[in-house]
Amino acid sequence: MSFKEYGNYDAVGLAELVRKKDVTPKELLDEAVARTAKLDPQINAVVVKHYDYAERQIAKGLPDGPFTGVPFLLKDLEPLEGTRTTWGATVLKDFVADHNSTLAQRFLDAGLAIFGKSASPEFGLMPTTESRLFGPTRNPWNLEHSSGGSSGGAAAAVAARILPVAHASDGGGSIRIPAAASGVFGMKPTRARNPVGPDRGEGWGGFAVGHVVSVSVRDSAVMMDAIHGPEPSSPYVAPPPERPFSQEVGRDPGRLRISFTDKSPYGDAIDPEIAEAVRDVAKLLAGLGHHVEERAPPLAADPAAAITTIVGSNTGLTLRLLEQRFGRSLTTDDVERLTLAMAQNSLKLTPVDYVGAQLAAFQISRALATFFEGCDIFLSPTLCTPPVRIGELNTMSEDLSQIAPLLRRYIPGTSMFNMSGQPAMSVPSAWNKAGLPLGMMFAARFGEEGLLFRLAGQLEQARPWKDRRPPACG
């Protein structure tokens, strides 16, 4: 295999080359490392490099799995024993994990060669990846723009073809936002589909779930087959799939009832090119034989207010535990100004406030469940403005008051599906005139990733994106 061809393969394809002995895992790792050396100085996506870890994995023999020999990145929020794991925070810049998360272990069991960590904003808190510790991760399509967040390093690395698939996680849109900003595919699974232990039973009150971003739909589906399922500490489980997710890709989705909107859930105007792209995709879906109508779910409560309380409270606990570990109060020398402000604001909340936020999330979930009685799929823009410019969301600003209004304009529609636990995906279906990707978000009923994979496979055939490459690309 000519290494020029590496970027033409998805992860399933690379694994097949390894199985046929057309290429070795070490050759694939060497290519991923070479691409990192060439491209990462431009995009800053791979912030922790532990090539020796992957080399040791290969030397001792990789497990026989669906991705044996494929290079892989963990997001820098996930513990991997013996490797540096910082959560994007200065206070943890030298922390070395002493165990594997359940998800990391399942990635290892799938045969992946984990050669580093992808960039995340501090503690995964922002929809852009610009930590003080590592600096900004840049969008391969335009280096002045963000690759999204919080899985911005993963999405940038996949878009640039450093590798075809990478770990990502989503507590308020953090798989879908960077997938949209970087022009790759990203599926947020149903709540509890994939494990989050052993250190916690759920993330951010059940909002957070881990999976991947990928070049192809089938990579995402095959990966979900490899890693899904409960663990001993799971407080609840997702509905079992009807068949392997890999068998959904390429399967006829049938004639679906698809509702769509080109508006923000708050009623605010969105970028006109994005609104036009939504309508164009709705027309494409109608042409594929689906029943398409303009219809949007009502907001039963304010998702921004609910997520602010729940994520802020979780951030407050994170900092309290760190203060206990280090035996001192944390300052802006340790964590970013926004992180500290969120933790301090959480101390002003009462238990009643937290339960009130949980109730608001349930009200949103209930309204969505009712809405989906009348449709199979809901289409909306993943982002309501183009990817933000580097520096627009400044977590070290003296004035943090501009962040919330910008987030309301930028990502008003993603977090509601974290609250409901429903699966939702971002599909790279459009680009604006400036050449930036515009991802479209599709959501389905609880437990119905299979339906989304069927539709994604159809869209991948109808409007392929894999061969569309950004300027910063291997």
TrEMBL record:
Q: Which InterPro entries match?
A: Amidase, Amidase_CS, Amidase_dom, AS_sf
GO MF terms on file? hydrolase activity
Q: Which Pfam families match?
A: Amidase
- Hydrolase in keyword set: yes
Q: Which UniProt keywords apply?
A: Hydrolase
Q: Where is the Amidase domain?
A: 27-452
Origin superkingdom: Bacteria
Q: State the PANTHER family in the record.
A: GLUTAMYL-TRNA(GLN) AMIDOTRANSFERASE SUBUNIT A, MITOCHONDRIAL, TRANSAMIDASE
Family assignment? Belongs to the amidase family.
Role, per record: Hydrolyzes indole-3-acetamide (IAM) into indole-3-acetic acid (IAA).
Q: What is the name of the protein in this document?
A: Indoleacetamide hydrolase
Q: Which organism is it from?
A: Bradyrhizobium ivorense
